[in-house]
Write a structure and sequence with these properties.
By secondary structure, this protein is an alpha/beta fold. Helix content is 21%, strand content 36%.
Length: 230
């Protein structure tokens, strides 16, 4: 199958619909849930209202709802949102999200979205996080691990599929073009996307500029972070 480029620097191949950032809807419907719901549930009060930014097909949304959280799920892909069940859904870009005066106990920005290769997009994502977290609330981020750009690397998931990071090549201004592959017994997908690696100091600096500060790192590898309004 030929590659379908959907946004400059982003592309995807494989069966089914491909979103503007190169994600395959059918692939994300197949990916297993890891420890994300447990990390969130352990970090925030039970029954919190959660604004999930970049929810995809609801891979994490659905377990959070099962745990009693009230989730508003945001994604720019209508095809992704068609797979979400039990949550209020909002379709549109995160950085221009307009929910009026609403605020939430928790805002969640997972899937390494904070590593957007475009500084303006990243800053817009962070402004959205700050705008919609209520006073006394928290923002949960998922960052890339220290080895994220060490390539090639491969993981065979217990669910029976293989994830590979095939390459990570500099394209200028501190941005890397990353190519990933997902192989199942009956199908294969690839995704190419742009990512900006950030040290903890750089990450915390961007949060500070958006009116947020890190309260604690939730996992030893520093991937999951809880921030609060300054």
């Amino acid at each position: 199958m030929s590659e379908r480029v959907v946004r400059e620097g982003y592309a995807g191949t494989g069966p089914g619909a491909i979103t503007p950032d190169g994600c395959a809807v059918e692939l994300y419907s197949r990916l297993a849930v890891n420890d994300e719901p447990d990390i969130v549930a352990a970090a925030v009060p039970a029954g919190s209202s959660i604004l999930e930014l970049g929810c995809g097909v609801g891979r994490v949304t659905h377990p959070l709802i099962e745990r009693g959280f009230d989730v508003t799920a945001v994604d720019e892909s209508p095809q992704m949102l068609e797979r979400v069940r039990g949550a209020r859904t909002v379709c549109g870009p995160i950085e221009s999200l307009d929910l009026g005066d609403e605020t939430f106990d928790v805002v969640m920005l997972a899937s390494f979205l904070v590593h957007s290769g475009d500084d303006r997009v990243r800053d817009g994502l962070l402004r959205t996080c700050r705008r919609y977290v209520r006073d006394g609330g928290s923002v949960l981020f998922q960052r890339e691990g220290e080895d994220y750009h060490d390539v090639p690397r491969e993981r065979v998931h217990p669910a029976g599929y293989t994830t590979r990071i095939l390459s990570s090549e500099p394209v200028g201004d501190g941005v890397e073009s990353v190519r990933a592959e997902y192989e199942f017994a009956d199908a294969r997908w690839t995704q190419t996307f742009l990512s900006r690696p950030m040290s903890k100091e750089q990450f915390e600096g961007h949060l500070d500029a958006a009116g947020l500060r890190v309260e604690r790192y939730l996992t030893e590898d520093g991937i999951w972070v809880l921030a609060v309004p300054k």
